[in-house]
Amino acid sequence: MTQESQTPHKRRVRYKGKYPRKFEEKYKELQPEKYQDTVQHVIQKGNTPAGMHISIMVNEILDFLQIQPGQTGFDATLGYGGHTKAMLKCLKGQGHIYATDVDHEEAAKTKKRLEEQGFGEDLLTIRLQNFCTIDQIAKDAGGFDFILADLGVSSMQIDNPKRGFSFKTDGPLDLRLNQEAGISAAQRLDTITKEELAGMLEENADEPYCEEIAKAITDEVRKGNHIDTTFKLRQVIEKTLSFIPEKDRKETVKKTCQRTFQALRIDVNNEFEVLYEFMEKLPGALKPGGRAAILTFHSGEDKLVKRALKEGYKAGIYEDYSRDVVRPSAKECAGNPRAHSTKMRWAVKR
Ligand SMILES: C[S@@+](CC[C@H](N)C(=O)[O-])C[C@H]1O[C@@H](n2cnc3c(N)ncnc32)[C@H](O)[C@@H]1O
């Protein structure tokens, strides 16, 4: 017997995979400044590191806004602060940016991160306000030379199971951008009628199975089964669509889950109402020659923005506006799948 075969066989430690599986365990990605290599590796693979948001169309936005030192700007949707930081850099230490977000939790982290990178209160004012209060902020600032709105939700919000934005992880069915105000999606489903829910799914997300899904949800709630987690909602959708031929079922369930979550998110956050108000107040917040860029992520938002800019142009409020949408490059979409649905529109105040 050789020496080698006498050595007792040692069981190899089970391979756990490259990345930690639970959100809380993604400690390296959640501290991006400390673990730059891990973060770069995740980004190169076309993924967004946990706790981070990759800003979309940064170059196109900066090219259009033409930010000069000494100017005053407004970032309506602070998020991770990627766009804010890129715009702050253009100011070269002279000028000011006001930014809003309704997400207290993420805004506090972003404020700290930007302060540590040298963008303190002398250059940046963050307000925990809805961007539809743009008129008040413009009054305090004396009008804006440039404005950016990057609508929707951040990757941090989608990836955090406690927020309930994703049907891919289980968590409370919340879907509020500001968890300190309003009611959660679960509470909304507790009292909504079948007709109203079907209308919401159709209007907010063009859901083709809106009638079937609305009936199934309201039936469950009537039986006393509260749909208060993301997985419970997903299960109701899966059961409702079980009549779909097996070869198409998986994809249809996925799409219907995406649309249902989108419709509920728009509803609990009054997204169309606040965007409408923002677009109405936008011209009044811009200085003459001021520039505004808006990124949207679904057709309902884009239609609203398009109409407001077109009407503003026809009324002589805007000197110019985007006739066509500007889309991210194929390269950007390949590196960041969340960029696929992005549409940018812009206008210049007369
Ligand atoms: C797509 S993210 C913005 C990402 C950001 N541009 C960046 O580069 O990191 C959208 C952000 O806007 C915020 N938001 C959405 N609707 C809002 C509203 N009506 N008022 C203020 N903030 C809003 C969300 O909470 C989220 O943090």
UniProtKB/TrEMBL annotation:
<comment type="function">
    <text>Specifically methylates the N4 position of cytidine in position 1402 (C1402) of 16S rRNA.</text>
</comment>
<keyword id="KW-0949">S-adenosyl-L-methionine</keyword>
<feature type="binding site">
    <location>
        <position position="131"/>
    </location>
    <ligand>
        <name>S-adenosyl-L-methionine</name>
    </ligand>
</feature>
<dbReference type="InterPro" id="IPR029063">
    <property type="entry name" value="SAM-dependent_MTases_sf"/>
</dbReference>
<dbReference type="GO" id="GO:0032259">
    <property type="term" value="P:methylation"/>
</dbReference>
<dbReference type="GO" id="GO:0008168">
    <property type="term" value="F:methyltransferase activity"/>
</dbReference>
<feature type="binding site">
    <location>
        <position position="157"/>
    </location>
    <ligand>
        <name>S-adenosyl-L-methionine</name>
    </ligand>
</feature>
<keyword id="KW-0808">Transferase</keyword>
<dbReference type="InterPro" id="IPR002903">
    <property type="entry name" value="RsmH"/>
</dbReference>
<feature type="binding site">
    <location>
        <position position="150"/>
    </location>
    <ligand>
        <name>S-adenosyl-L-methionine</name>
    </ligand>
</feature>
<dbReference type="Pfam" id="PF01795">
    <property type="entry name" value="Methyltransf_5"/>
</dbReference>
<comment type="similarity">
    <text>Belongs to the methyltransferase superfamily. RsmH family.</text>
</comment>
<keyword id="KW-0963">Cytoplasm</keyword>
<feature type="binding site">
    <location>
        <position position="101"/>
    </location>
    <ligand>
        <name>S-adenosyl-L-methionine</name>
    </ligand>
</feature>
<protein>
    <recommendedName>
        <fullName>Ribosomal RNA small subunit methyltransferase H</fullName>
        <ecNumber>2.1.1.199</ecNumber>
    </recommendedName>
</protein>
<keyword id="KW-0489">Methyltransferase</keyword>
<feature type="binding site">
    <location>
        <begin position="81"/>
        <end position="83"/>
    </location>
    <ligand>
        <name>S-adenosyl-L-methionine</name>
    </ligand>
</feature>
<dbReference type="InterPro" id="IPR023397">
    <property type="entry name" value="SAM-dep_MeTrfase_MraW_recog"/>
</dbReference>
<keyword id="KW-0698">rRNA processing</keyword>
